[in-house]
Amino acid sequence: MSISQKLSELDQIISRLRYVKRLDLVLSSDHNDLVDAVKKIREILDLVQQQLQQGAAAPAFEGDYSSYDLVVNKRIELPTPANFSKMNGCVQFTSGNDYVFLWLRWVDTDGNYHYGRVAIKIPDAEPEDIAWNEEECSWLRDWIAEQWLERWWVAKTDIDFAASMTRRYVIVNDPDWRVRAAVWKDGKLLQRLDLTDIYYDDLNMGFEWMPSNWAITLDAKYITYITIALLSGTAWLRALIFEGK
Q1: φ and ψ at residue 70, rounded to 5 degrees
Q2: Global model pTM greater than 0.70
């Protein structure tokens, strides 16, 4: 069975996963679906390893891009909880080739810290799912960090770099300035991305960007820089997406 077929099976399993809240009834099927998802990921990794050994994985996943152009430059105001005070931090990673997940840490009016999540569709950059309650998403954040991000997924939790599926493409954050990055392909510098002018345009309008990180889709077609911009106590999704040419 091909990797694409395995990924389709994984998508079917993921579609059955559901969020639960405190006091919700958790069924055996909820647990079993998670187990099935992890096993399916293991099968996909085995196939990836086989193709890597055969030197055939890169063509199966990543396209052959010579440059990246900015195709999305959006600000979208987000609905926030009534007790929202300020944002404390955010980090993004891509899910396959279709979504960016932005994890949020925010502070309420009493000074308490909470976690939230925004799912953003690629390449339209439209938020499709927003959760501000830690109980709804903290377990998923921790599970992803342990099972995917640190082992094989796209963006690492230290947010110093992001990589496509076989790491043929690597995005390295500028250590001194988060809105600049270098794109490497096959071990050679391909392009430098710089959002400095956009950042200062927003700053002059009163927007304050939260420090974020760069991410790249598994197939390397899209590179994203998505963060939260604050303006007079309101939270805006700031989405910038580059497409490979």
Answers
A1: -70, 120
A2: no
